[in-house]
Amino acid sequence: MSAGDRTEAHSLLVPIDGSAHAAAALERAIAIAKDSGARLTVLHVIEPPHLPPVGASYVVGLVMSEPDDEAEALLDRAAAGVPDGIPVVTIVRHGRAADEILRRVDAAGHDLVVIGSRGRGPLRSMLLGSVSRAVHRHSSVPVIVVHAEPPARVVSADVREARA
Would you tell me which CATH number, out of the four given (3.40.50.620, 3.40.50.300, 3.90.105.10, 1.10.10.10), belongs to the domain 3-163? Predict the structure, then answer.
C-alpha cells in the first residue's frame, strides 16, 4: 500500500464487474481495510442493455441482460477472497453503474470508494463513458482508481537467442 492510501476510512465501497481492474481494486481495498479496520461493501451493478428500445432490438437487449444469479455468484467469489476479520457486505443494484455507485456512497455514508480503472473495455468506455471517471468527478468522498498490472510479456529462449 502506498502512503497516499493511508486513510482513516471506516466504510469502503468497492464496485466490481469481473474485470482484472476490479479485482485489483478489491485487493487494494482489502489492504486499506486491514490497515484501518474499515468494513467493505462490494457492489455490482447490472446495467440495462445499451440497445435502442425499438422493435426486435429491444427484446434481444432484454434477453442479453445479465441475470441476478450471475451477479450474486460474482459477489460471492469476491467476498470469499476477503480475509476473516474484515466485515464485508455484498450488494446487487440495477441501473447505470456510475449513478448507482454514487447513490450508494451518499445513502450509506461510505467514506472512500476504491474502483477499477476500466471494466467495459476501451470501445464501450469511449461510447458510454468511463464509470471510474464519472465516479471520481462526482463523488462526495475520496476515490482511489486502481489499474490492473498488465500481463507480463513472455519471451521464449528461442526468440532471445535469435535476437542475440
Answer: 3.40.50.620
Q: Assign residue 149 a region: left if phi > 0, alpha if psi is -120 to 50, beta otherwise?
A: beta
Q: pTM higher than 0.90 for the full model?
A: no
Q: In angstroms, rounded to a whole number, what is the distance separating the alpha carbons of residues 154 and 120?
A: 26
* Tens-digit pLDDT string for the chain (164 aa): 444 445 578 999 999 999 999 999 999 999 999 999 999 999 999 988 755 555 555 454 444 556 889 999 999 999 999 999 999 999 999 999 999 999 999 999 999 999 998 755 555 444 445 899 999 999 999 999 998 876 555 555 554 444 44
